[in-house]
Amino acid sequence: MDYDCLFCKIIKGDIPSSKVYEDDYVYAFKDINPEAPCHVLVIPKKHIASMDDITPENSEYVSHIFEMIPIIARKGGAENGYRVISNCGKDGGQSVFHLHFHVIGGTELPLHVFPNK
Ligand code: 5GP
Ligand code: ZN
Q1: How far from 111 is each of 73, 94, 108, 114, CA to CA, in Å?
Q2: How far apart are CA 14 and CA 88, in angstroms?
Q3: Among the options 98, 100, 102, 112, which is catalytic?
Q4: Ligand 1 pocket, 33 CB below 6 A?
Q5: Domain range for residue 65?
Q6: What CATH number should be reported for the domain holding residue 28?
Q7: Is there a domain that residue 92 lies in?
Q8: Cα(12)–Cα(39) distance, rounded to whole angstroms?
Q9: Which of 46, 53, 65, 107 has the highest CB neighbour count under 10 A?
Q10: Quick count: other Cβ atoms within 10 Å of Cβ 58?
Q11: Does 39 qualify as catalytic in the annotation?
């Protein structure tokens, strides 16, 4: 628990959220500013700041997240597929520094967008 972290406060229930799924390792909730009909944020219940901070000691949280994403995506309304995104660091566009995976779907998504292409 990081007392200054928005997503740690959401896990604790100090800030309300719309829960999609929860177990001992993972919390999943609807993004406050959805970019598709299904836009769920999936986070570890342990404070890990970003993709850069995954280690052998905490990676069980991450592997469990990936085991649960197919179930979470369907619970969140993605029936026919979905996309998983994790923004990392300044250039990656990360705005909340508690590791999270965006699970986006519920509609046919545009093809991948890369800069300069
Ligand atoms: P990032 O930009 O770090 O990849 O993603 C952060 C995400 O968190 C954004 O999509 C943003 O809409 C979402 N977000 C920020 N604050 C809150 C909040 O208080 N509640 C919820 N449910 N989502 C939030
Ligand atoms: Zn945190």
Answers
A1: 19, 21, 9, 10
A2: 25
A3: 100
A4: yes
A5: 6-81
A6: 3.30.428.10
A7: no
A8: 21
A9: 65
A10: 14
A11: no
Location of structure tokens 């093809």 = 111
Q: What percent of the chain has pLDDT over 70?
A: 97
Question: For residues 34, 47, 11 and 84, what is the CA-based torsion angle, rounded to 10 degrees?
Answer: 30
* 45 assigned to some structural domain: yes
The torsion angle over the Cα atoms of residues 84, 65, 81 and 78, rounded to 10 degrees, is: -100
Which protein residue has the closest C-alpha to ligand 1 atom 12? 33
**Beta carbons within 10 angstroms of residue 111's beta carbon:** 5
What confidence tens digit (pLDDT) does each residue in 33-60 have?
999 999 999 999 999 999 999 999 999 9
What six digits make up the tokens of 43? 């986070």
